[in-house]
Amino acid sequence: MDTGFTDYVTERAPWLRKVAFLLCGDWHRADDLVQTAATLLYTNWHRAARAGNLDGYARRTLVNTFLAEQRTSWWRLVDLRPADHDPPPASRSDLESALDLRAAIDLLPPRQRATVVLRYFCDLPVEEVAKTLGCSAGTVKSQTSRAVETLRGLLPTESLSTPEASA
Fold first, then answer.
1. 150 phi and psi, to 5 degrees?
2. Residues 133, 117 contacting (CB under 8 angstroms)
3. Residue 5 contacts residue 45 (beta carbons within 8 Å)
4. Cα–Cα distance list, 136 to 25, 84, 111 (Å)
5. Which of 12, 27, 115, 123 shows the greatest Cβ crowding within 10 Å of its Cβ?
6. Rounded CA gap, 34 and 13, in Å?
7. Could you tell me which of 30, 32, 57, 29 has the C-alpha nearest to residue 43?
8. pLDDT, tens digit, for every residue of 127-140?
9. Which pLDDT tens digit goes with each residue over 51-68?
């Protein structure tokens, strides 16, 4: 039992950490989420190993761990992000645009953030996201729509005219 678990977690830990980071926005907290999810995965390894989709099982465990943590009073007490946690101003570089998006995603409510991460980063279909989050496909669609609309409002739009184009 331990060998299969160890092999799986060793191989998939970087991927789980990326998903956790996208959910919570902090690498240290992402490590904690992965550790908690891995512990839960280990305690249920007999069930997880029989799952048809082990990555899906691990992903669902990770997302449920994140969402459960968001509901606790502990998280509200230790959220060290400033109240004026706004996305940085827009820029033209890909790296800075990615940072803008990361900061905007961080401002989404937890379930919308989980929906966006599962739909667009993990590239899951609506039905799989609904299964992972334990809700209906319609809820996933509405959460995704709200999240995308919020992101559009938070992210600055690039002007169609550039200095080079007007010269």
1. -65, -45
2. no
3. yes
4. 26, 33, 13
5. 115
6. 8
7. 57
8. 999 999 999 999 99
9. 889 999 999 999 999 999
